[in-house]
Write a structure and sequence with these properties.
Layout: H1 3-6, H2 12-23, E1 26-27, H3 39-51, H4 63-77, E2 87-90, H5 93-104, E3 110-115, H6 121-127, E4 131-136, H7 146-152, E5 157-163, H8 175-187, E6 191-195, E7 221-226, H9 227-230, E8 239-243, H10 245-256, H11 264-274, H12 278-301, E9 305-307, E10 314-318, H13 327-338, E11 340-341, E12 343-344, E13 357-361, H14 366-383
Parallel strand pairs: 1-11, 3-4, 3-5, 5-6, 6-7
Antiparallel strand pairs: 2-8, 7-8, 9-10, 10-13, 12-13
Length: about 375
Amino acid sequence: MNRLFANLPTTVFEVMSSLARETGAINLGQGFPDDPGPEDVRRAAADVVLNGYNQYPSMMGIPELRSAIATHYKHWQGVDLDANTEVMVTSGATEALAGAILGIVEPGDEVVLFEPMYDAYLPLVRLAGGVPKFVTLQPPHFRLTEEALAQAFSPKTKAVVFNNPLNPTATTFSDENLKLLADFCRRFDAIAISDEVWEHVVFDGRQHRPILALDGLRERSVKIGSAGKIFSLTGWKVGFVCAAPQIMKVLAKSHQFLTFTTAPNLQAAVAYGLAKDDAYFNDMRKNFARSRDRFTDGLRTLGFDVIPSQGTYFVNIDIAPLGETDDVAFCRRLVMEHGVAAIPVSAFYAEGAVKNVVRFCFAKKDSTLDAGLERLARAVRQTR
């Protein structure tokens, strides 16, 4: 068997979710909403299943969706894209990441990874034969520094895998940090693979700035988006890839031998959804922000040290003030003894792990969040 996959441990998400199922715990670990998603978008998908085309669609994505993606990003982010040569549809953002990494990285190439990171990045880099070079981000701000980038980049650097907004930290990168990253990519002739799936889930008046808009990166970057995150339909697995034509030509060949294409009814429904008026997207953010505030206020009332959530479905706490030094042990006790599943953020580090941060998902019904807070209150009383 391939040792890379054979030796991978069971993910912490599966471990905690399994414990939640076994114990009847409230699962605030896995990142998916309770809400079923917008009904009109779901009905559009159902209509195409019954009345539309259900055979192989174009490998690059149906024309309507590619055009809708280009129009959407022009409207929201000011990025000009040629729908025919710079946009591709994949079966989810993880497939887009796999295709980008396998299409760009060759054995021996160095790839800069920022930890904590989405758990697919490192196995995919190693599968491509890449050599990971880690930049370890520290709480509570998780910011880039010139010193850390200088240690990670070298003449062997081929690519950077970047996530903004950042899962699991729920932070966004400042313009200053983005400029610093762009400077290093230009200086070392590296391609930026930018995971921007949370681009619409940002709060407090923030505006997402795409990698393609940074000076000098338009021709050396790959932007990846997700319909699942935009429409709270995480099971649909419809991803977007945007890149300059010379990069896209290679990524298309990589995609061809992964999933090849994506369900046409879902593509048609996403094209419909991307054209919804601004009110949908603004209201979506407001609703998630309200849930964030409800849960965050509850955590602070209980005495938890909360790291502010700037985007994503998540909020983190620092458990060090509780005298806790092992986030994995803390989360295991939380689910087994108090009936709440959370995620230890150390699971998102490959080296230099931070052991004092725990992640919760707030994209849940008020009743679920309130019940979770009640159980966390018991946990706090026992800790003290």
